[in-house]
Amino acid sequence: MPRLTNIVVPLDFSQVSDAALTRAIALGKACGATLHLVHAILPFDLSGFRHEFSTSLDHSDWARIHERAKADLEAAAGKVKAEGVPVTQTLVEDAPVAAIEAAYQAKEGDMIVMGTHGFSGIKHLVLGSIAEKTLRTIHAPVFCVKNAEASQTKPIRRVLVATDFSDPAAQAADFGVGLAKDLSASVELVHAVYSPNTAVAPYGVPLSADYLLAVRNAARGQIEELRDNLKREGVTIDVFVHDGDATNVICERAKASEADLIVMGTHGYTGLKHVLFG
Fold first, then answer.
1. What is the C-alpha to C-alpha distance for residues 39 and 89, in angstroms, rounded to an integer?
2. Fewest 10 Å CB contacts: which of 20, 140, 186, 269?
3. Quick check: helix, strand or coil at residue 113?
4. CATH topology of domain 6-153
5. Would you say 135 and 277 are in contact if contact means Cβ atoms under 8 Å apart?
């Protein structure tokens, strides 16, 4: 994996949604994939708020909402077509995550590309609410695009693949290396060794230097074996093992190595399907 053939792109027509579309177009061009644009209109009832609002939505209001959404979706599709990338568009009345999952299944998707921190403005960890729900409920590789102009157009040349050696992490690593091959990018496998000063035991038991060294050596052996199993023609794969909290190690290494994309598995041993951060 990949080569990508079908990329699902949820749109809410926000700035971050536009950023995700720009990145998806670049991926589509690089991989020869078709983009499947989907926008969901969530029906709601204001009848319970008649005392707070002087008017309620009627059929003509919904018609205008649909027409506006249809026009925005067609404009987005036109942007994709202008870049020579095949595109389809779907407008549905449904909850956003349900609409994304339905489109992913119907289009036999290989990946979802979506923006984070959209209209909801809710920032939970590094994701917006819809992106987070998508990761939790849809078994699919999800490429999360932040609202940063430089990241939208910058070519992906360096891919950091974080691993804890769990099965989800191994699947994500295979996906990440395959994507790197399609994008002519290099890969760095990164593993964080958790080395507390004391073992979890009554009164605390100091860990010996020999034990810590053995843990590091075992981790290096595992990551080098993973590298050998992931070898692809034309893809350079480096390895990096460092002591510390996984989140800190990944973020610091991504910055130091100037990684353009972070790939990791979720629901692994760390409790952290595939997630890609561009």
1. 8
2. 269
3. strand
4. Rossmann fold (3.40.50)
5. no
Strand order from edge to edge, sheet including 261-265: 87-93, 34-41, 6-10, 111-115, 142-145, 274-277, 261-265, 158-162, 186-193, 237-243
Three-state DSSP class for residue 114: strand
Q: What is residue 232's predicted lDDT score, i.e. its pLDDT?
A: 82
Among 86, 124, 103, 72, smallest CA distance to 9 is for 103
Check residue 135 and give left, alpha or beta (phi > 0: left; psi -120 to 50: alpha): alpha
Q: What tokens does 210 get?
A: 């020999």
CA 190 to chain centroid: 18
Beta-bridged to residue 87, according to DSSP, are: 35
The structural domains of the chain, with segments of one domain joined by +, span 6-153, 158-277
CA distances from 246 to 8, 190, 212 (A): 30, 9, 16
C-alpha angle 158-242-181 in degrees, rounded to nearest 5: 25
Over 90: is that where the pLDDT of 212 sits? no
How wide is the angle at C-alpha 244 spanned by C-alphas 239 and 247, nearest 5°?
80
pTM across the whole model = 0.82
- Residue 275 vs residue 271, higher pLDDT: 275
Residue 277: strand pairing partners: 144, 262
* Average predicted confidence (pLDDT) for the chain: 83
CATH architecture of 158-277: 3-Layer(aba) Sandwich (3.40)
Residue 63 has pLDDT above 90, yes or no: no
Q: How many CB atoms lie within 10 A of CB 111?
A: 25
CA dist 9 and 143 (Å) reads: 10
User: What is the structure's pLDDT at 2?
Assistant: 57
